[in-house]
From TrEMBL, chain A:
Residues 1-25 are annotated as: Disordered. Pfam families: p450 (PF00067). It comes from Sinosporangium album. Coiled coil: none annotated. Keywords: Heme, Iron, Metal-binding, Monooxygenase, Oxidoreductase. Belongs to the cytochrome P450 family. GO terms for molecular function: heme binding; iron ion binding; monooxygenase activity; oxidoreductase activity, acting on paired donors, with incorporation or reduction of molecular oxygen. This is Cytochrome P450 monooxygenase. Gene3D superfamilies: Cytochrome P450 (1.10.630.10).
UniProtKB/TrEMBL annotation, chain B:
This is Ferredoxin. It comes from the Bacteria. Keywords: 3Fe-4S, Electron transport, Iron, Iron-sulfur, Metal-binding, Transport. The keyword Ribonucleoprotein does not apply. Residues 1-29 form the 4Fe-4S ferredoxin-type domain. It comes from Sinosporangium album.
Amino acid sequence: MTGAQPRVVDFPLRRPGEPFPPPRYDDYRRHPGLVLSYLPNGNRVWLVTRHEDVRAVLTNKKISSNPDHTGFPNISDTMGVPRQEQIPGWFVGLDSPEHDRFRKALIPEFTVRRVREMRPAIERIVEERIDALLAGGRTADLVADFALPVPSLVISTLLGVPPADREFFESRTRTLVAIRASTDRQRDTATKELLRYINRLVAIKEKWPGNDLISRLLATGTLSAQEMSGVLMLLLIAGHETTANNIALGVVTLLLNPAWVGDGRVVEETLRYHSVADLVSLRVAVEDVEVSGQLIRAGEGIIPLVAAANHDAEVFTCPHAFDPARTERHHVAFGYGVHQCLGQNLVRVEMEIAYRRLFERIPGLELAVPVEELPFKHDGVLCGLHELPVRW
Amino acid sequence: MRISVDSDRCVGAGQCVLSAPEVFDQDAEGLVTALTFAPDPGERDAVRQAVELCPSHAITVHDHGQGHSQGRDHDHGQGREDGRGHDGVVVDDG
Ligand code: HEM
């Protein structure tokens, strides 16, 4: 069964629709089967848009996360982001069982309980950033001054970066993420500096273990030094811009829907509604496999579009409405299957504190430009804003 | 309602603990462990949600009369919104 003739769309994807309400793929989703696209190198890539199909792809053993397989859709090449080298310890790019060794070593660091213990530290980080906003006048760019530093500082706390080095750490991670504000060369330098810093930090923790993730991971004795730095770089990169973009988009959505300010349920709904990790879960078929009645050949790429799945009307009532009271909770903003986001509980706590304290402490917060003029990352791997000018 | 959990399948996402903290916990390794294998009827919806959210199908519900259901398989297809439809509970979509 190969279904109807597949619909073919251009790549790179420019997300259809305006960001508020967020990009949607209703049109793709209505087409039976899957939507086909071609990467600039001529490789075929199948776009998956229905919730059920996305979950099926993300749990199918014939479908791989490993970029070393021929046909893997390295979309970052086409989107101005340098290809992630397959470095040891970069386990988001490994399949089970290789993947599981790394994941198992890290799970204890991200339990619901452990994340709860981090709450006071996260609160302190958020308070300090808001102090800095208020001290800086009555306008700010909430991306550069809040949304980016908060997750970076949280990760540095998680890893056990000494307070004196957090400034360095934060500035380098920001350079990595700020596609517009930094050049390729600056990003390259920042990556090298971070890697060197991380390796030094690991060496220090080896000698003088502390009460932190790196020390505990070292104590398990399961990772080589090289794998260790790969794992730490992954945590750093996976947890930074994703969280920042979600915070920035979430703040705008709350400014547009002020009735929901202060309601804890907004966290889950901003995750679903904005689905920032839209082009993050990339896959390749390693055997012929059928999805949604469409035959996918071994070596063809597959992109489950989580933003599309999370706006599937078969699953979410009025999917384009921002409705924190909705009862359907099974969005795939963090993916699905064995790679489902390891940092998800950390993110939930971080966003809950960030939204709540920002609006409590700056009740007069408003956009400094009309919403249509906000610079949206229309063709980035992640959905987000380049800048978020606000005033109060 | 009776449940079982499979820590070999577990990927430590923690969704069950958030959904039904009276029924599920994470052990020292961060993997799923059941606090009870026969949850109170009042926990039914919470357990259903945990099953629905679990990304690795590590929770199984052995329901009276409904046979055996693992992962999301039990509510595949129609009316899958956290399975509440089965119990005639009105789902308020706001
Ligand atoms: C709003 C914020 C975030 C979103 C939307 C998000 C989204 C995702 C998604 C969709 C995946 C699955 C990738 C795939 O299937 O290939 C993933 C994996 C991952 N995320 Fe997140 N993430 C966020 C924040 C974080 C944070 C804060 C951390 C850690 C500090 C983190 C660490 C990871 C790791 C380590 C993986 C790989 C897990 C594995 O392969 O087993 N993420 N994330």
